[in-house]
Amino acid sequence: MLTRILSKVALALMVGLLAGCQGGVLDPKGQVGIEEKQLIIVATLLMLLVVIPVIFMTLYFAWKYREGRDEIYEPKWSHSTKIETIVWAIPVVIVIVLGVITWKSTHALDPYKPLESDKEHINVQVISMNWKWLFVYPDLGIATVNELRFPANVPVAFQISSEGTMNSFFIPQLGSQIYSMAGMVTKLHLIANEPGSFDGMSANYSGAGFSGMKFKAIATPTEADFDAWVEGVKAGTHNVINNGVLDQASYEKLAEHDIDAHHVEPTPVQYYNSIASSIFMDNVMKFMKDHGKVELLKGTAFDSEMIHDNSAHGEMNHGEMNHGESQHSSHDMHTEAEKIMSALLGKLSWDALPYDPIVIGTLCVVAVGALVLAFLLIKHKLLGVLWNDWLTSVDHKKLGIMYIVLAFVMLIRGFADAIMMRLQLALATNGDPGYLPPSHYDQIFTAHGVIMIIFMAMPFMIGLMNIVVPLQIGARDVAFPFLNNLSFWLAVSGAVLVNISLGLGEFAKTGWVAYPPLAGLEYSPGVGVDYYIWALQISGIGTTLTAVNFLATVFKMRTPGMKLMDMPIFTWTCTWANILIAASFPILTAVLAMLTLDRYLDFHFFTNDGGGNSMMYINLFWAWGHPEVYILVLPAFGIFSEIVSTFTGKRLFGYKSMVWATASISILGFIVWLHHFFTMGSSANVNAFFGIMTMIIAVPTGVKLFNWLFTMYRGRLRVTVPVLWTLGFMVTFTVGGMTGVLLAVPGADYVLHNSLFLIAHFHNTIIGGAVFGYLAGFAFWFPKAMGFHLNVKLGKAAFWCWLVGFFLAFMPLYVLGFLGMTRRLNHTDNPDWNIWLYIAVVGAFVILAGIICQFLQLYVSFRDRKQNMDTTGDPWNGHTLEWSTASPPQYYNFAELPVVSDIDAFTDMKEKGTAYVRKESYAPIHMPKNTKAGIIIGGLITAFGFAMIWHIWWLAIVGLAGAIVTFIARAYTSDVDYYVQPDEVARIENEHLDNVAKG
Q1: Strands 196-202 and 214-220, how do they pair?
Q2: Which residues pair with 124 in a beta bridge?
């Protein structure tokens, strides 16, 4: 019954969506677009065959097998070879079917493949210019700006390139898009099945004037109408400019760009009735001219010659006013003062201070908050405690808590950016510019992506891993405690640099991926990209060190008896995430280093000058970027596994399947990066291969979902806050997985890439997957880490606000993607989009209510902590070793390393009666000492990064040298450990066991 209802609702929603997408990719007017629409429908229906049953089973099992029902089942059935085989087989069959469809459709819809027609195609050469489109008709001897014309039912063959930044040529109603890149030529074939005027655009963000980079594609009713238009252009009866001649001089004039342009309206349509015969090839196939950077630097802080010229000009005027040589010495003093200030402060000047009232207000709030916090710490005499017990701690549990505090701080900043973006797009409709200047808006969406992925999600994940993994494997700490402390402070260092950019200078305006040439010095001469580089570089090194540390811990410090296939599933997922970090983060380090060399020393890794190629950056970035998605999601999968198993009172169904599914996801995650740029012009074979590889990842992911469902089956599910987050994840992530498979089909991705459909999918997986997982883990392990429970009512309120807000905020973005709205627009002028933008901003505020509930929950829980203490250490009747310790755990974790013989080690101990046994005596425990070296190195590295951003070379040398010297000094320090004496161990253990006995 419920299945039929869900099916009808899904079908009704789909029909409504298709009917409502007038003017978008689901309202195609061309042969290619029609075929792509059919492909989207077929792929969606196939995925619904999995999505609907999974959602139905999730809701049905949660209801039927909840605690308190009339039926009582014995908690059993943790393994079934037959069921596990079926669980693997079902998604395999669907992927095979989709794979066949993908292979055939990718070749059929190959943008490079000419369209079959009995009519001769029209050749059009396209050059994207900042911020306009030039269309050259080489066979007809004419050219147009921002207007493309061709006859209906006649195929058009495009050759596409760029004069500057990377763009994406896209006419949603006609079908596929393709990138335009300087120094390269891509191809596209389209046809309009009926006459009309269609909106064209760049689907890829390319800088400040991006929102105004639009054109009209007009399909004339007949070929005769098109011929008449051509003759009119040649005769000069249309808006012919510059005497109608497109020669090299007029081309260069047209190609001039202003890096600070913020065009709201597109460049007016222009026509050329005479063109140089090889204008396209002359300007595209050769390397870009090297003089561009020199011209851009004039009049900026980079141009010392210009400063000198201005000074000389000032000298002349001053001399005329002051009569003679006295002015000369004044000028010399002025010049010397400038040199001294430049040597001391580099590029830093008063101009770096913010003048935006929004930024100033934010900084004032932050300053007041910092003063209040400092006052409270001093008033309650907590500064010493903060320094001695926390900031210098090497205890993995305290470092984990500090990582999560960092994540929550950056959540505030990152979500504030999200609210500002949603508000801007809700207000900037119908051509209204909104309340954010374009430059500010561009910084906001870049900072939002960087913060939420690198400085919110990553610290949250690493924080939970720090708290839990050493406890789960029965270790007393990580393999390298000092390195753990240093990794944390490097993460803080990167976060500090991102936040400094709010008050000094600017952040990058490139989007979080920072593609060249937009991220190069020519198009981003300010310090924004440098903030981006050094923040990611420093924090990335810290993350790499964390991965090495935890891999050494897991492989070398497991408690006696714990084999690899006996490790808890959360430890397994974290281990695979760390393998991915160790393998992929060096790629990020390398690509950022090359971008740094391009910007600082004029190397040409990613520019056409000197033989570089921006595509190399994109390949390297996504070779890191796609594994990064799984780095974030895999630990969340482990959290859900622990929660489902614990709160159903059962062992996890299909443990070995889960381990191998995790391994499969990790390995496959490294060979799918190219699906991020199917529209870059790769061959059909390449695109099809990467599309099918991406779909295959859906198989082990589907296995996990079914294993969680069968863990719930015949259990006694306690619907707690962690369980609510888990159930919410299983519904939202299923939808996100379906849309991900849809994007993995190249033929569908040709029209969905760079649209808001992609943004909705990404947030569907990261919020509905990773963030929901971290919040579930936060609620699950909070009593263990802090010693008291969280307020349940506020926890449930937070969950429901997050869940409802998520669907309100991001489901409209799927619709907007189908309607043809691309991402990173700072204003819109399509009234059909408005209602969806308004719904999305409401959803963002509902999520904000959830975040407020989360922080209110922390306050109320801390206030009432004495009434909600966890005295047993095992508040949920857990399965794994962390629950065998006190809450919070003893600082040495285990008085004696436990000997385990089962996957669910603590459950096994409780069943055998070996848990909570008092010992007659204990041995001394070897422990690491706290150290201030980590925070000192972090501070010095922050100074180094800041100095490199602003070219303060003396400070860069001091910061880097100081960090190296501090690290070496710490390496040669012998006073780094101590022993906990047996009587101290006995006192702590007896106190814990007494509390357990009291219940």
Answers
A1: antiparallel
A2: 158
